[in-house]
Amino acid sequence: MQFRLEKRQEPSRFMLYATPVAAVVLTMVLGAIIFSLIGFDGLGAVREIFLTPLINPLKWQDLAVKASPLIIIAVGLSIGYRANVWNIGAEGQYIVGGLAGTGVALATWEMTGWWLLPLMIIAGIAGGMAYAAVPALLRVKFKVNEILTTLMLTYVSVQLLNYLVLGPWINPTGYGQAQTRLFNADQTLPYIIPGTIVQLGTPIALLVALVAWVLMSKSMFGFQIRVVGLAPHAARYGGFSEGKTIWLALLVGGGLAGLAGVLEVAGPFGRMVPSFPTNYGFTAIIVAFLGRLNPLGIVVAGIVLAITFVGGQVAQTTIGLPFPAVGLFQAMMLFLLLAGDILVRYRLRRVVPLAVAEDVA
Amino acid sequence: MSPDLLIGLIITLVGASTPILLAALGELVAEKSGVLNLGVEGMMLVGAVICFAVTYNTGNPWLGIVAAALASTAVAMIFAVLTLGLSANQVATGLALTIFGTGFSALFGRAYTGKPLALFKSIFPDWLATHPVLKVLFGYSPLVYFSFAMVALVWWFLAKTRGGLILRAVGESDISAHSMGYSVIGVRYGAVAFGGAMAGIAGSCFPLMLTPQWVEGLTAGRGWIALALVVFGAWRPIRLLGGAYLFGLVMTIELYAKAGGGVAHVLPSQFWAALPYLATILVLVLISLRQSSNTSAPACLGKPFLPTN
Amino acid sequence: MVDTCDPTAETSRTMAEKMIGTGLKDIVRGEGRQMGNAKFVVSNLSTRKLGHFDVAVEGVSFSVRAGEILGIAGVAGNGQNALLDALSGEVEAHAATAIVLDGQPLGQLGTTARRKHGLCAVPEERNGHAAVGDFSLAENTILTARDRMSMVVMGLINSGAARTYTGKVITEFAVKALGPASLAGSLSGGNLQKYIMGREILQRPSVLVVSQPTWGVDAGAAAAIHQALVDLAAEGSAIVVISQDLDELLVLCDTMAVINSGRLSASKPVGTVTVDEIGLLMGGVHGDKTAEGAHAVPA
């Protein structure tokens, strides 16, 4: 039996949304097989990583905490990717956003007032934007590839973080431990559901996704982003400047990553520490693709990836699966998703020699 | 500067430059065929961990290098099947490859964390390899000589052979190459496989030459620097050699600064650690200023090839 | 339907009629069409070379009256694309007064502002330039008609308005498509061209600049497009048609000029030029006096 790929007249909407689901399911199946083959408890790994966090209500609050920054960052990245702007340094913008918020917190740590937190959040967004402005400027002015610059700046931001928490920002009463002082009550995010660890970051993430969805599907901003990404020449003809769009895409991406950063440092962390970079910026790339670069899809994808993080910790304690295994599951999911992409634009036809071909897609 | 210090400096420089040179040579060939594989860092990490595991268990670094090359080629084939077979987005797939490699090396490297590995020493007789002056020429791991040989080989292949001509044709104009009867996809599979093998060998430089015990994420972004290096080298092997040693020099300065040499203390150690990355950005800007609108990148770079029939 | 004929005994017109199955309609030239005053005046327009193989335009000057169709003939690659980009606003002119519409200097405005002033343009390349293949027809309508047809309110897209206008284009220009939601890339080249021409013409622009309006379009559709252009002119618009098809220009235009190596000859009424004359100009022979006049500003 032979198969042949045939171009569809129009991309299949069904496949567009079915392939991410199929990718997750296939990851579970293949993951169980592969991890069994290399000597782990494959079935147990899939159960603990993908199902336990969903089934156990005690884990739901962890999901909310993990999914929120992923969703916020991925929404920003997806806007850039739609414009063909490949910002892969969200991790760095997240760190700088967190640092900017920390800077404000440390400068105001003896003060009180409701305005402290909003000020930190604004600083965080501005920090992320400023850090993304560098690759934007280099791309627009000097045509320097943003993939490399955003990534290089991530490595730089880690050093900046280390320098600050070890040096000027070190907790004066912390016996030399590399961390800042704890933020005061007005500088930390309030809990929104009593008795849980769910903080203000979660509703903000949902709001960000909703606003982005409206902007991307209903506004000229979204139209501009999409047309520049799909056909730059047509965009120029339509009156949209490519340079301005690159700036917009990077500033929005950087600003949202910065927002996620300041929400993390003012939320779960409560102070700046060297272990602040938690790869959210990189995982958000998977979230953006799994969510089909659609803000609402990203909410679902953010929860899926949060499940793997929370489940990875569960699997570590219950069946002793090393945590990096989660990264392999995530990568496998992305591989399968990208492989499935072809079904959106092509249909698979069985080629029966000298007979009528029948549709198997 | 004393002669001893200078010799030490040169040896450190060569060590720092070799892995990025090897990885960049592989990526150069892949890009010349029109494929942008952003997964270099991931392939290097896979190579590094496989090399460590095989060398640690067999005691034979040669086996380690071969295994690393094979493993990274296999990983590169995942990329090739997705992007060439299924025309998936090359940027996204390359990123996925790096995420995969990071997870893979972290998972399989755990068993070796902190375990020591003997350095892969020079193959020259001891009196040459450890001679206070001559070690500048003879004191290196075979991987170093291999990297130089590969520069010459890649240059010769691309510039002087029919195969190189076909590869460049595929990267410059896939449609013409296709209509002349060459297999565009076939050539690109080969180029991506070569890129994978070279990234694997580059990865094996870390356990064999640079950090003789397993450290998670030991490539520290060198794969990305290799990608920048290809741009810096304007897709030419000889310029790539120069670029690799220039980047190597920046990293050498970092190492000396960390060790606390002289003026380094004026600035915090984190500045020196960030220097290679800042230098990369600076270099990318300088290149774009020098190159006019006529870029030297292969015309089909990163674009999927979809024959109409 | 199968018909046989002796090609040597047929004209291209009767062949075309056989192919499309109906008689070709004659273009109803706007007999007694009133030519108004100079409406669209371009003076000494130059562009910079963008790439190594790019042909720029140099010192191009012409003027089109209300109701007039000016044809610009030329062999491909003589600066037609640069001229269109400069007129549409994709490339800005060095001086605002290089392009004047009804006394308004437009030379340094972008495409959006020029459209608001009534200057619309259709580039030669359909997929990827005049239209986005991965966008629906309705979205492609937003690309160029959003301001003149009020499809955007406070930054938000009124998709109902876009669909309605797209439906009108599809009906009036007989575009073979399932509807406004069809992807532009799924249309045949000829149907996409009909859609694009309809999208611009139905905006009733004061000036329409089109490149290769009937490239790859079947004879019946070409006649319909030609008729629509003539009708638009009859309403008092000024039209510039850039084409490599001499026959098309001779049928359609009132005046003609020739572009060669980025320079434009003086324009002449169609009745007064011979095909030989145009052929010589297209080949770059500028021996006669009228052609010299075009080079008022030597490079």
Automatic annotation (TrEMBL), chain A:
Cited InterPro entries: ABC_transp_permease (IPR001851)
Residue spans crossing the bilayer: 21-43, 63-81, 93-109, 115-138, 150-171, 191-216, 246-266, 321-344
Keywords recorded for this protein, A-Z: Cell membrane, Membrane, Transmembrane, Transmembrane helix
Membrane topology, from the record: Multi-pass membrane protein
The keyword Transmembrane helix is assigned to this record: yes
Location within or outside the cell: Cell membrane
Cell membrane in keyword set: yes
PANTHER family (alphabetical): ABC TRANSPORTER, PERMEASE PROTEIN (PTHR47089), GUANOSINE ABC TRANSPORTER PERMEASE PROTEIN NUPP (PTHR47089:SF1)
Name of the protein in question: ABC transporter permease
From TrEMBL, chain B:
Coiled-coil residue windows: none
Protein location: Cell membrane
Key words of the record: Cell membrane, Membrane, Transmembrane, Transmembrane helix
Transmembrane segments: 6-26, 38-56, 62-84, 91-113, 133-158, 189-211, 217-235, 242-259, 271-289
Membrane topology: Multi-pass membrane protein
PANTHER family (alphabetical): ABC TRANSPORTER PERMEASE PROTEIN, SUGAR ABC TRANSPORTER INTEGRAL MEMBRANE PROTEIN-RELATED
Protein name according to UniProt: ABC transporter permease
Organism name: Devosia algicola
Phylogenetic classification of the source organism: Bacteria, Pseudomonadati, Pseudomonadota, Alphaproteobacteria, Hyphomicrobiales
